[in-house]
Design goal:
Two copies of one chain form a homodimer.
Chain A lengths: L3 E3 L12 E7 L4 E7 L4 E5 L5 E8 L2 E5 L2 E5 L3 E5 L5 E4 L6 E8 L6
Antiparallel strand pairs in A: 2-3, 3-10, 4-9, 5-8, 5-10, 6-7, 6-9
Chain lengths: ~110, ~110
């Protein structure tokens, strides 16, 4: 595993769906870059045994976490604690890039 | 715990030493903002059972991880895997702000 990475080297979008590009992965955590075209979403889901953090690198996203909903822009950050349903929407007009940390990595991938 | 935070609200420096300002904390991970004035350092140290990720929000830092050394700027990221000595120096002239993730949170604090 490379120890040093540039966000720009991991920024890749696709017209079909939001992309999850891995930056780092260990037994204890993973760190991905999520890239959303306008209109793309991460559908709400739950991890019972993992916590996730989203940091907005570029663009704006609408975050749903449990009963809460908030639109965040660059240099804003959110936590989805284990057991809480969470999802993200890019309602545009810009592309959305998120740095995402999760601990531990869920067993299902 | 607040689910949504702004980096700017957690950015606090001190003349005595680099500041670690917590953003989120769970049983599985923590997420801090580290704020370095020019000349301030995080001395090299080791966590045998935790992995740490550093993301540069602002400024430039010199990162030592194991046998590797690299200067990183904004939107660059590094991992210090468990068992590898790691440290950071802000050689200036700008202030350095790092987003730091660790999993799991070490027992000693």
């Amino acid at each position: 595993m490379e120890k040093f990475r540039k966000i720009s080297d991991a920024t890749r979008f696709a017209p079909e769906k939001m992309q999850k590009n891995n930056l780092f992965k260990t037994e204890r955590m993973y760190c991905d870059l999520y890239c959303f075209e306008p209109g793309q979403v991460q559908a709400p889901h739950v991890h019972e045994e993992s916590d996730k953090i989203y940091f907005v690198v570029d663009g704006r996203g609408l975050f749903q976490i449990g009963e809460d909903e908030m639109e965040l822009g660059a240099e804003e950050i959110a936590i989805a604690p284990s057991g809480q349903k969470h999802g993200v929407s890019n309602r545009g007009p810009e592309r959305l890039v998120l740095l995402v940390f999760m601990a531990p990595k869920p067993a299902h991938g």
